[in-house]
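Q: What would this chain look like folded?
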Amino acid sequence: MKKKLVVTGAVISLLATTLQIHAETPTSLHTNLESNQMISNANEKKGESFKDIQGHWAATSIQTALNKGIVSGYPNGMFYPENKVTRAEFLKLMVSSLGHKVGTPTTKAQWYDDYVKSAKVNNLYVETDFPSSDWTKPMTRMEMVYVAARAIGQVGEDNYDFLYIAVKNGLLSGTGNGRLDPEGTTTRAQALTVIDRIEKVRSGETLKVDLAALNNAEKAKNADRDPWGRIIRTTNLPRNAKDFPYVLEDCLNEMYEMKPNIIVDTTSAQLAKSDEYFNYKPIMDQWRQTTENYYNLMLNVDYRTIDEEWANELFSYHNQGFISCRAFYAD
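A: My prediction, written as C-alpha cells:
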C-alpha cells in the first residue's frame, strides 16, 4: 500500500513538472488576421508608425515587416507588439515573408489552411514539430525554433539541438540572463524579430549571438537527461537530493524539499533501485496520462452542466490508475 502511494505521488509530481499553462491575452489576433487587419492588404499604407512601437526593443524588425507589407497594425493606431501569436499566424507571417506560393482559399476552409499547407510543402515544419494540429494555439518558442531552423535549412536531432542551432545562428536570443524558455509563448514582436533574422541569415549575413543563451543552449544540448528528455541538474541540489534518483533542472529545490502529507518508508531513490516498474517508461507514461486526464476533467469542469456522464468518465480514470497498479504488481 505504501509503495502504491509513493508511486502515485511520483506520478503527480511528474505531471506537475510537465503541464504548461498558457494564459490568454485580452486581444485576440485571430479576428484581425481573418479580416486582414493584422496582415496588410494592397490598399493599406505600408511603413506606418504606431504609438506603441516607438522605443520598443523590436521596433526595427517591426518597421521592416510593416514596410514589406507582411503585417499591419490595428485601426486604433496601435500595433500591440506584446500580443501572443498563434501557430497559424506565425506560419502565415513566415510564408508571406519568404514569398512562398499560397493556394486559393475555398469557402469551407479555415482562413489559415492554405498557409499551413504552403509551409509544409516548403519544409518549414513537419507534423512532429507540433503536439497537436490545433493551429489556433499560441505558438511556443520551441515551435518557433523548429520553423526558424528549418527555414535556414538546418534540422536538429532533438529539441536541444534545435535550440542550439537557433541560438548559434543568431535567430534566437534569451529572455533574460540567457534563459531559453522553450515553453514560453511567442509575441508579435518576437515573431517578427525572428523572421527578420531568418531573412538576414538566408541572405548570407552573420548575426550577433547572445553568448549567455548560447552557453545555456550548449549546456542543455550536452546535459544528462531523464527518459522524458528533461535536463538533470547536478549542482545547487536540494538538501534531500539523496531521496530522489535525480533532480530536474526546471524544478525548484522547494518542490523537492516539500514534506509529504503521508508517512512513507521508501524514497523515490530506493524505488528506482529496487522496483522494475518505477524505471519502465511505458508504464510511467500510462500512469501519467491517466493522472493528467483525471485532473484535467476534474479541474476544468463547468459545474453548471455537470452530469452522470462526466462523473462516470472521472471515476473511470480514477479506477484505471489503481487497476493498472494492481495488475503490474500482480505479475
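Strands lie at 232-233, 247-248.
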